[in-house]
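ugh ok fine here u go
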Amino acid sequence: MGFESIQLRRSPSGKIVQKAFVHPELDADEVAIKITHSGLCYTDVHYSTTDMVLGHEDIGIIHSVGSNVSSVKPGDRVGWGYPNKTCQRCDLCLRGEDNFCADKQFFGEADFDQGSLETITMHKEQWLFKVPEGLSSEDAAPLMCGGSTVWTPLVNHVKPYHRVGIVGISGLGHLAIQFASKMGADVVVFSASESKRVEALQLGANEFYATKGVADYTKLGVTKPIDRLIISSSAKVDLSLFYPFLSKQAMITPLSIGEGDLTVPYGPTVLQGMQVSGSIIALRFMQSKALEFAARNGIHVVVERFSMTLEGANAALAKLKEGKMRYRAVLFKD
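structure:
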């Protein structure tokens, strides 16, 4: 019989359309979920002309489960993000790096009839995560992608004694500040806007430097070298500006996706042992730990709320495209 759903989809024309859809019966490893909250991020803008259901930062209540599902049950509150399925057979999966699976099924690449802007959806048990009691659904939804993205390089490469520079107070940056601060790192924020100083310090930064109009960053007065530099800004950053106060063997991690090339000074990169390391969403084990950490340490997402309707989705995506979202969009069921 399947599951009837009302979906908000992108279309080849670029418009968001509302559509009735019937999901098929559950496979043995699948779960049907009634959606309550969904984040939207700029990835949803990237797929503006793809015929697919919007949304991949999802929170909902399990409606029913397939015959082989054992880790969750009806009534559980769960979240899920970019991946729907990984193969568990390739070298990357077998060595615990399933977020880079060679045969993955990710949002925007597969399962175009499954998303979070619909009344009920299907998802593989494999990439579902129980939401801890102490974490609200409004906070949890953006952590399924945006939070996961900043958590990964921090938990993999940051120690409590590191000075962590975060470039941009954005949908990613404001979460990176909180996670890094709660991990015990010395957090240093760089932003083009002086108006964000107070907010950055309230989120957990120890130092703040406004960079707009500054051609020589040595004049910022950075007190000590930076060990890890997280680029959360969507704007292209001239990395050479930061090199004078990066420590030897510092790691630079760009997180946002954009066009063009990323360039670094050749000689200093080699001679000072600098590392530039891309990073994506968390692997399954770390996604669960990110949610637990956020609940235990009071990580809160700065959100703008929209109704999960055609009007709400259009308003949220328009604000995202204009770059005016502060800082994550969350759509919710009335």
